[in-house]
Structure formats: structure tokens, C-alpha cells
Amino acid sequence: MAKSFVMQLAALATLFVSLPAFITLIFSIINLQFPDAADNYWEVESAESAIRYTIAVLVIFFPAYLILTRRVNQARRTEGELYHTLTRWLIYLALLVAGMVMLGNLAVAVYTFLNGEITIRFILKSVALLAVIGAASYYYTLDAQNYWQNKEKKSVRIGFAVLGVVAAFVVFGFLNIDTPGVAREVRIDQEQIFDLQDIQWRVEAFYQETDSFPSNIEMLYQDIPAPVVAESREPYELRTTGPDTYVLCATFAHATPASERGIAKPTGIGEDIYLQNQNWEHGAGEKCFERKIIPLQ
Prior knowledge:
The chain is mainly α.
């Protein structure tokens, strides 16, 4: 009986991991399918990251939940009344936790709606939340009454149906994000932007100190290695184009994501120059960023 009781705990534990992950997956898909003009670029990135994470969680934990639940239900058909009593307590505790999860997520949904989220998102998230938590609660309410012990075939069919629904959302979520290969290339593109920003800062500091440009990038890194590009990409290039202007060049695999475009903001000091110096938008292939030294005030 101890082994079966531990399996029941494990089944509920995997459920408590899978359920929030599935809800987060649905919410993230909704956010991407119904974009809001008020969204910041990092909110789009956050939704895509959440989809990757929840897919990883569901692929591992949800099949484990189904397998454990199947074995627990088989054990409950042979164990004594004490085991049924203990599992019934666990199920009621699970229902309590599910109710708290639903209320908490509903509160978050209402908060984001009051904070300006578009109505269609709020409606879809609320419906999805009530459907997911409601279906799980209904299943376990019947389970606490030993309903599924006499309905084995029906229980198995429900398990396959739920697996199909989760798999469909996982596939749809995967279609809303970049493939692993593309995600890697985009991440390398972002790292190159960070490198170029560091080089730009060092060029400007060098110019303010010496009133001249360095002859190469390595001159800016006296005590540490200069940034190196990934294999198969052209090295970074620094070219002087005037007495106080220069370009920084790099090769990119993909264009700047739409969610990150047009985020540079003026400061009121050399506004046009500042905007030019902060513009890191690029297409696929080689891109040279024009830069101008801003005189010290």
C-alpha cells in the first residue's frame, strides 16, 4: 500500500506541475495570436520564452502524470479501504489547490484587463482557465467517489483525449516560436549587437581621450581579448568615414525581430545623433552601423 500511496502523491505532484504549465502555454499563445499595440518588445520575447519553457515541462511531466495516474487507478482496484480513504484525502487536497490556482490566475487575468489588456485576450484567458481547471476538478471530484474504478475503459479514453488536446497545444505553441536552429542564430545575432555596443562605447572613450580613432578593434582591448564572432560569420569591422564619424560592421543571420524595432528614444541632447547612435536595426546579411562622436558638453 505504501508504494501505491507514494505513486498517488507522485501523480498529483506531476499534475500540479503540468497544470500551471499548460495554462501558461495557452496564455502565451493567446498573447502572440492577439497582439496588443501597448505591448513592449520584451513582453513578446517573454511570451515566446514561456512557450519554450512550458513545452519542455509538458513533454516531460504530462506523460509521467498519465502513466502514474494509470498505475494508481489499477492499484486502487485491488487495495483495501484504508488506501481509498488516504487517496480520497489527497484528492480533496488536490481540489483545494486547483481551486486556489484558478482563483489566483483569474485575479491576474482581471488585473491585466484592468491594466489595459485588450478584451479578447481577457475573455479567452478566462474561458481557457475555467475550462482547464474546471475539467480537472470535475475529473477528480468523480475520482474521489471511486467513479473511475468501475469505468476503466472510459477513464483510458479520457486520458487519450486529454493527451491529444495537450499535444495539439504543444504543436501549435511550437509553430508560434522559432525552431531551435533559428533561435540559436537569433541569439548569436543578439550577442553580436552586445559586442558592437561594447565596441562603440570603447571607440567613443578612445576618441575622447586621444582625439582620434583606433586603427583597429584590437587597440580597444589592451588587457582582454577582443570580441570574436561565431564560426562562418565575417569578423567585426571598424572603419573611419570622417573626422568624427565611423561605421561598425557585422554579418547577421536574421533581421531584427519586429518586436524590437523602433525602440530608441531621444534624450534631447544631440537628438538626431543620439537616435542614429542607438539604432541597431538590421536585416539578414552584412550591416554597417553609421556612428558619429557626440562632443562632451
